[in-house]
Structure formats: structure tokens, C-alpha cells
Amino acid sequence: MVAEFRSLCSSFGTSRRAALDSVKQQYPNSNNPEHEALIQRVGAAHDYWDLQVANIVQEIAAKVRTQSMHADHVETRLRPLLASLDHKHRWIDQTYADLLDLLKLPTWRKRHELFSVWVGSILLRTAKAEADRFRFLSANGALSFAFGGNRLATYDRDGEQFDIWAELRSALVGTSSKRKKGIQPDFRVLSPSLDGSHNAQTRFVLECKHYLLPSVSNFSQAAADYARSCPHAAVLLVNHGPIDDSMLRAAIDSSLSQRVEFIGDATVIEERSSEKIGRAVRKAMFPHRQASLPLDQQPDPPHADTEPPSLPESSALIIEKAIRDELRLDFGRLRSDDFDRVEKLNLSGRQNLSEINALKILNELEELDLSGCRSLRDISVIQKLRKLRTLQLAYCPKISSLTSLESLPELSQLNLEACHGINDIGPLWNLRRLVYLNLGGCSSIYDVEDLARLDQLNTLILSNCPNINDIRPLGQLRGLRELLLNNATMKDVSPLARLTELETLELDGCANIETIEP
Asked: Where is this region: Disordered (predicted)?
């Protein structure tokens, strides 16, 4: 609307006065309604009446604030005066000057964000109308569109569950001239699962642009990056200004273009009349089910006595079964809400569990038992479980790195018994809330110096660690109450004399001890 009004006025002159004089000369017939309407429209740029009223109101407000005028007195005088004026409710065109003033406001600098929220509201409204069950995920009664990524809503459709996210960041697949490492579309719809990345779970991507003129390189690169990184997703790019659909599609690889759609001239007025954004969102998120194949093209059903080949369970399926056991859910699809209810998970003894990436969505997990998972090697995903308090990793011989444990500020109990692959316990130095630590049987550990900072430690087990010869750092653990050093090889235990809170000390099988005097 602003651009159209500016274009109209500029076609008659380079200034407001010149434009008004020119339109009066070109359309002098005041009896012609079309001439009169055009003169009034251009003349609207010279109407400052409402600005004067606003200035007067501001002056009155300032006097009330400084108490030079009493608020009750102002109300008493203004109410009958305003009531006596003739008035009616109607839509009016803002003046050219008012619109220019609006463009100077700080809010206008955030217009692209406002546009994005408006388009996002169409996405949410469409999902709510089409879904079998829909729920907003508000915080303190409001939806957050913050840049860091927020889940806005969850819904069910035909037995499947989906989540709507704003600003969710994920990895970039391939190379891009606009992005280096990641993609972060304005909105995306995910089909959450334990198996697969955010990109693999994404079913719909919605990107919003607030450009006055189309940018072929910017728009096409964004759409291509999203389509390439999210192989199962339809991509919709919406621009406030116009687009050139043919040029945009020509700039995108043909293997991706079939999943990409562009919409231009996306304005409130246009959407009210055409609903083109809503229709495009509905088409992408709720496609009609494909008609069944003709009978002569349908595959033969399997014989009743034919059993499918037996395949080993995937790690994701093992974890899903454990979650179902914890929540006592025997059937039905796991929902995002279900994952948020998991605070404790027992995966002990799962010999085929080789990776645990599916745990990354268990944001509320506090207790995790992975003891006896002998195939488990990589535990880096554990760093995402920020609320974890208890971690059991006993008898996991293939685990060699504890780096991921540095990011667990709430961890208080850690069992690493018989983890023979661990030779560096340096990452444990930052676990300042640790009260129980079992390193028994960790035969590759040589140095315990990094344990000296664990001043909250109550129980420490170092039994059957044949390569630990120097226990002097343990003398700094003044709060230690229980210490097990069975079958250790150190000769000097005098540093333990400083452990004044010690209640239990086990030294069975420590044949090399020369003296127990402090």
C-alpha cells in the first residue's frame, strides 16, 4: 500500500506540493467524480489534522505526568467535549506523511519478523483446522518465536503425530553460497521419531522473505538448501513482494524443484481474497491420500505360512521399546509429549545396542542405565541430556572417551566399573556435584590427579585398578566418607590421613603397602 501510494504521488511530481499542483492541472473538472477522487487521494499527503490532535494529546499527557494538570480534571473537561463531536466508525487511508513517520519507528525495523509471525499464524491456523487433534505449546500463556528454536504446537492427523517448530537449526547438507554449516528456516513441521536427524524428520519447511524486489539468487539458494538438507520435506518460500517463478525454478536443480513452491505478493489484503498461502500450506501439510492401485496392479499378498526373515533390532527400536516399558505403553505411536515424560530409562544388558543417538530428544531424562551394553562405543549424545543426575556405564568395554560428560552439570552419581577402554578421566574434573564415582576395574587408568577437584565426593571406588600407583591427589577429597582401593599397587597411603571424614576404607589385596603411618 505504501509503495503504491508513493508511486501514485511520484507520477505527478517530485514533491508533495508539485504533485498536488500537477494533478489539479491535469484533472481540473471538479464536477467529475473521478477527477475529484484523484485530487483528494493525492491531497491526502498534505493532511496533518490527526498529527496536530496527537501533539495536543501528548502535551496534555505530559502535563498530567508533571502534575501541572490533574488527571480527573482533564477527564471531566474532555469527556463531554469529545462526546459532542460527530463521529462514525470507518476505515480511512493513512496519509503519506503518517506512513513515512511510521517507517522511522523502531518497530518498522522489525517488519520482517512481524511478517514472519503473520505467515506463521497462517501455518498454525491451517494445522489447527485440518488436524484431528491440535494443541498449542505456550509458555506463560504466549508462543515464543525466538531465534534459538521453539516448538509451537503439536497435532495428530490420520494416526500420525507432528510438531511445528520455529527457527529450529539443523545441519546443512552439501555446499551453499549463502550458508556455511547449518540451515534455520522460519518454520518447519517434523514427524518426531527416535531414529533419524531433525532433517530426516522434517516434512514441511516454510521460509518467509520481506523483500520489495525479488532476489533470484537469495530465494533459489534458500529453497535449494532446505530441499537438499530435508529430503522428505515440501518447501514453501513466501515473499512479501513479487517473485519471478520461472527464473527461480530455472535456478534450482530439477531433482529438487518438484518439492519447492514460491509465493509472491503475500500481503494481508491479498491473502484475504485469495488464501494462496493457506492453500499452499494445506496442500503441503495435508496432501490427499493417493488412490489405491487397480486390482491388476496390486502385489500378491504373502502366503500365510511365510515368515519374514529375522533381522537384528536397530538401536533406535531397542530404545523405543525401553521407553514404552518405562511409560507402560504397549501400542500406539510415541508422541513428543511421551518423550518429555521420560525421567528414567533402563537399557542395561542390551548387547546389540551400538549407538544411542535416539536419546537426544529425552530432554527430561535424569537417570540412565547403560551398564552391560558391550557393543556401545560412542556416547557423545549424552552431552545433550543436561538434566542427567545418575549415569550407569559399567561393563561397557568399548567406551574410550568421557568428553561428553563434561557438559552434565547436574550429574551426581557415575558408575564406570570395568570400562577397560577408558584411559583419561580428565573430563570428570568439571563434575563438581558428583557424590558417587565408581572406577573399579578400569585397568587403563594411571593418574587420579583430575579427581582432586571433586570436593563433593562421598564415595570413591578404585578397586582393581592395577596401574594407579600414586594416590596423593586423593588427600584433597576432604569430604570423602567411603574409599575402596582393593588390589591396588600403591606403596604409600599416608596422604589418606588428611581424610578426616572417612568412615570406610578398604585395602584388601594391597600387597605393596609399606607403611600405614601418616
From this structure: 292-311
Q: How far apart are CA 339 and CA 353, in angstroms?
A: 19
d(CA 259, CA 224): 10
Structural domain boundaries, residue 213: 110-174+181-285
The three cell numbers locating residue 345 = 530409562
**Of 124, 122, 144, 146, nearest in space to 263 by CA:** 122
Pairing mode of beta strands 187-190, 202-209: antiparallel
Look at strands 150-157 and 187-190 and give their pairing.
unpaired
| Cα–Cα distance, 205 to 120 (Å, whole number) | 11
Q: How far is CA 252 from the centre of its chain?
A: 27
pLDDT digits (tens, 9 = 90+) for 231-284: 999 999 999 999 999 999 999 999 999 999 999 999 988 898 889 999 999 999
Q: Are strands 160-166 and 187-190 parallel, antiparallel or unpaired?
A: antiparallel
**Is the domain of 279 the same as that of 323?**
no
CA–CA separation, 507 vs 514, rounded Å? 13
For cell 517434523, name the residue: 190
* Domain assignment present for 126: yes
Whether 392 and 458 share a structural domain = yes
Please indicate, yes or no, whether residues 332 and 458 belong to a single structural domain of this protein. Answer: yes
User: Looking at the domain assignment, is residue 99 inside a domain?
Assistant: no
- pLDDT per residue over 422-440, tens digit each? 999 999 988 999 999 999 9
**Residue 356 grid coordinates:** 544411542
**Beta strand pairing status for 390-392 and 413-415?**
parallel
Total tally of structural domains belonging to the chain:
3
Q: Are 471 and 494 in contact (CB under 8 A)?
A: no
Side-chain-side CA neighbours of residue 458 (13 Å): 5
Asked, for residue 103, whether it belongs to a domain, the answer is no
Ramachandran category for residue 140: left, alpha or beta (phi over 0 → left; psi -120 to 50 → alpha): left
- pTM of this prediction? 0.49
- Asked if residue 63 and residue 9 are part of one domain, the reply reads yes
- Provide the 10 A C-beta neighbour count for residue 87: 8
Q: Please name the helix (run of DSSP H) or strand (run of DSSP E) that holds residue 227, with its range, or none.
A: helix 216-229
CA distances to 100, 262, 271 from 268, in Å: 20, 17, 5
Q: Within this chain, do residues 250 and 350 fall inside the same structural domain, yes or no?
A: no
Specify burial of residue 442 (Cβ count, 10 A radius: 0-12, 13-18, 19+): buried
